Amino acid sequence: MESQNLAQLFRQYGDDVFRLAYSYLACRADAEDVCQGVFLRLAEGGVTLLPGREKAWLLTCAANACKSQLRSFWRRNVGELDESIPFRDDTDQAVWDAVMALPPKYRAVVHLYYWEGYGQGEIGEILHISRTAVQTRMSRARALLKKELSDDEEGLPAFDGASRAD
Question: How far is CA 145 from the centre of its chain?
Answer without folding.
Answer: 17
